[in-house]
Amino acid sequence: MRKLFIAGALLFSLTSQAQKAKKAPKAADPKPFAATITPDDLKKHLYIVAGAEMEGRETATDGQKKAAAYIENHFKSLGLAPGNGSSYQQLYPVFQDSMVRAGLEVNGKSFEYNKDFSINFASAYTSTLFGGDVVFAGYGISDSTRDDYAGVNAKGKIVLVFAGTPPAQTGTTVRGRNPFAIQEAAQKNGAIAVLQVANGSPRRPGGNKGNMYVNGFRKTIYPNTFLISEEVAAAIMGADFNAAKEALKTGTTPAKVYSANVMLDFAKVTAQLNSSNVIGFMEGTDLKDEYVVISAHYDHLGKRDNVIYFGADDDGSGTTGLLDIAEAFVKAKAAGKGPRRSIIFITVSGEEKGLWGSAYYGDHPTYPLDKTTVDLNIDMIGRIDPKRKGDSTNYVYVVGDDKLSSDLKPISESVNNKYTKLELDYKYNDPKDTERIYYRSDHFNFARKGVPIIFYFNGTHADYHRPTDTPDKIDYVQMAKRAQLVFYTAWEMANRNDMLKRDIPLDAQFR
Ligand SMILES: [Zn+2]
């Protein structure tokens, strides 16, 4: 009952608005263009995007670049303009370290990498140090609550600390959430390197190649930090080691300088790679300086030991949906029914690594975000959530539509009621939902800049992030309906008189 009332009121307000704004062109019918988004067409694209040739589309790899080229060619063939100056691709830097060597010696005894010690490549820099003193400094804490460096001068010295937090502070301090707190404290006290006694084995997984990262140029470069075994610590502290270990379980034990000849060696090479967002642009008519963004991520997990993670649903489905939505808008424009606002079709990469591409666009937008009325983000629309109760043949999860603009949800619902009639499931829009879906795809990088968003999602399934997420398992009929819903919603966003009002405080979304 209530829903019907709201929809009725909205329809009324839309009609009265349209009557008021005389210059607004008569609304065209989007149906014939939505009908060009077909299961067959989506299937054709998805078998290519999620095919073996694309090698799982891992960010900053050849597979990603092949997928980017495919998307760019599609945009070009449709006649879309490049969305980043004269280029369809917006490159952003990606870094990856390979270790060349690592060594650790105490008083002439050398220890074994990945058994007695390890090092986090990404935060370490190439250096070989020979130190004659080591400062033991408890848990390595040095702030307003506690100073494990009290009574010693750590300037220019290697420090040795234990991992963990003092018993009284377990789980209660900000420090527990700052991964660099120990390095910050060491640096503040003038230390040049940190040896941290690991809980358990210091072995790090993987080979000599580190993970990719984007923050290659750091505001602060911290002292190199080696995770060490208890044997290494005992070789430095001698008989004191066990006593210190016991004392730290209940509280503290004073800092102390140990005389020991310690050699710390680490060398890496850093490859400077790049990845890209692929952006196609369609100019609007009378409102062309305002924008609608449709987004999807085209990267996936790549290959592991030659096993391809195809990522057909995640997010080949959103990517191909976007390609077909773009085509539908091109056909509308060719028929003289192009959108009033400009439309930005953006496929981003780096999503699986940490929403990198959308974060980069959010910080380096090629069109102003304050003139971007909405981002409609599509990530996984080709499958069915087996956990979902009830009819699963005609639904989509809708997330975030009420977070920044009170305009958006009623519009989204009225468009769906009028055209696609999917069941809009708000399960993942509940702030208490433990999956925290709202923060887990690229729309979030628009929302954090204040752009109202809708995220379309089918939920996860047994093939999620597995090599078995393949194009043969897609429900193309349902996928087409969901893509059509995005098209209709974008159409409404692009053609209504006003941009969405931003009447909900930005901070309210971080509940
Ligand atoms: Zn994913």
What does this structure look like?
- With 511 residues, the chain is an alpha/beta fold.
- It has 2 domains: 287 residues, Aminopeptidase (3-Layer(aba) Sandwich); 176 residues, Glucose Oxidase, domain 1.
- It contains 13 helices and 20 strands.
- The strands form 3 sheets. It has a 16-stranded mixed sheet that branches. Strands 6-7 form a two-stranded antiparallel ribbon.
- Helix 1 packs across helix 11.
- It is elongated and about 85 Å long.
- The two termini are 30 Å apart.
- The N terminus is likely disordered.
- It binds zinc ion.
- Zinc ion binds next to loops.
Chart the SSEs and their pairings.
Layout: H1 2-20, H2 31-34, H3 39-49, H4 62-78, E1 81-82, E2 89-106, E3 109-111, E4 117-119, E5 127-136, E6 142-143, E7 146-147, E8 158-162, H5 181-188, E9 193-197, E10 209-213, E11 224-228, H6 230-237, H7 240-250, E12 256-282, E13 287-297, E14 302-304, E15 307-309, H8 312-334, E16 341-348, H9 351-354, H10 356-363, E17 372-378, E18 395-399, H11 408-420, E19 423-425, H12 443-447, E20 453-457, H13 476-495
Parallel strand pairs: 5-8, 8-9, 9-11, 13-16, 13-17, 17-20, 18-19
Antiparallel strand pairs: 1-12, 2-3, 2-10, 2-12, 4-11, 5-12, 6-7, 12-16, 14-15, 18-20
Helix pairs in contact: 1-11, 3-8, 3-13, 4-8, 8-13, 11-13
Bound molecules: zinc ion.
Ions and ligands: zinc ion
CATH architecture descriptor of the largest domain: 3-Layer(aba) Sandwich
Instruction: Output the CATH homologous superfamily of the largest domain.
Output: Zn peptidases
Domains, number: 2
Strand content: 25-35%
Question: Would you tell me the structural class of the helices and strands?
Answer: alpha/beta
Note poorly predicted spans.
Answer: 1-22
* Largest sheet report: 16 strands, mixed
Look at the structure and give the CATH class of the largest domain.
Alpha Beta
User: What percent of residues adopt helix (DSSP H or I)?
Assistant: 25-40%
Cα separation of the termini: 30 Å
Describe the global form: elongated
- Count every beta strand, where a strand is a DSSP E run of 2 or more residues: 20
CATH T-level fold name of the largest domain: Aminopeptidase
